[in-house]
Structure formats: structure tokens, C-alpha cells
Amino acid sequence: MSQHLPNAPRDRHTVHVQGVCLALTVAAALAFTCPAWAASDSGTIHIGANVPTVCTVAVTDSNATLDLVNGQSGVTVGSVTEQCNAGNGYTVSVASANSGTLKSSATGSTAIAYNLTYDNTTAAKSGTLTADRTGSSQSRQGTLAVSLPGNNQAVAGQYQDTVTISIAAK
């Protein structure tokens, strides 16, 4: 025994036609309520990078021993490797802790003045100098040299000074 609903369609063709009509009705409704499929849009992405300024100086002490009694000229006491990526340049500063003199703690000794040279530039009497560099450098070599007159009256003892080399971006 089969049961039929009062308004149920009687064959398959009727059901198919009703389904097509429903699909067309939904499509028409969407066409009027949705934005067009052909519309365009755009967005942007910012891509950036940062390179920090890095300046370094590597100093190698040549462990030179100076002859204070007879004097010496242009003795290399150290070498310097400068590196700085600052596009507008950098400065290298050289400074003597004892204002360009060798000092001893020996009784009766006096300070002995010397001339300090960095890359063929002689320091001021105070033992300081500044080398101005234009552009960046990834590996520039420099030489630190000392000249001093002979002093046959120097008191026996150990004479010393400390020289500091600094680098800074402009």
C-alpha cells in the first residue's frame, strides 16, 4: 500500500521542473543582492629593512721597545683596522693618557715627550689627533708610530703611556 500526499507531484518530471524553478529564483535573488563578481580591489604591503650603523676599531700592539737614551724616529707601535658602515663617514680619535709623554714612577724621573703619528698625521703636543674619514669603510688599515729625541739624562726605570683609539660615525 502506498500513500500519497495530497499536493505531492505525480511524476519525476514535475519534481525536476520545480527544482529548476527554485534554483533560478535563488540565482536571481543573489544577482540583485551580491556585489558583481567582476569587481576589483587592491591592497599594499610595505617591505622595509634597517641596517644599523656599526663602527669598530681593532688595535694590535706591536710590543715595540723604545730607546729613550738614543732616541728613535717613526717606530711602529701598533696597527689599527677601522671598520664603519656610516655612509656619511666617520672619525678616528687618538688620545694619549699622559698628554704625549712617557712617565715613570722611578724616583727622580721626569716625563719624556714624544711625537705620536697616526696615518702620517702628527698628534698635537697634547698627544691627541682626529682623522676625518669620508664614506664608509669595511676594512681600512692604519699605523700608529712614535718618534722621540734621545735623552742621555733619563733616570733608569720603566716609562710608559697608554694610547686610546676610538671610532665614531659622523
- Quaternary form: single chain
Total count of strands: 11
Radius of gyration: 43 Å
Q: Which consecutive residue ranges, at least 5 long each, have pLDDT under 50?
A: 13-17, 19-24
Give the full name of the CATH homologous superfamily of the domain at 55-169: Fimbrial-type adhesion domain
Proportion of helical residues: 10-25%
The CATH top-level class label of the domain at 55-169 = Mainly Beta
Total helix count?
Answer: 1
Give the averaged pLDDT, no decimals.
85
Order of helices and strands: HEEEEEEEEEEE
Described by strand count, sense and barrel closure, the largest sheet is: 5 strands, antiparallel
What is the overall shape? rod-shaped
Strand order of the largest sheet: 1-2-9-6-7
SS-derived structural category: mainly beta
Layout of strands and helices, then pairs:
Layout: H1 12-33, E1 55-61, E2 72-84, E3 90-96, E4 101-104, E5 112-113, E6 115-118, E7 121-122, E8 128-133, E9 137-148, E10 159-160, E11 163-169
Antiparallel strand pairs: 1-2, 2-9, 3-8, 3-11, 4-5, 4-10, 6-7, 6-9
Brief digest:
By secondary structure, this protein is mainly beta.
Describe the structure.
With 170 residues, this protein is mainly beta. It has a domain at 55-169: Immunoglobulin-like, CATH 2.60.40. Helix content is 13%, strand content 39%. The chain is built from one helix and eleven strands. It has one helix spanning 12-33; strands at 55-61, 72-84, 90-96, 101-104, 112-113, 115-118, 121-122, 128-133, 137-148, 159-160, 163-169. The protein has a five-stranded antiparallel sheet, with no helix packed on it. A hairpin with a 7-residue loop joins strand 4 and strand 5. The chain is rod-shaped and about 100 Å long. The termini are far apart. Mean pLDDT is 85; it is low at 13-17 and 19-24.
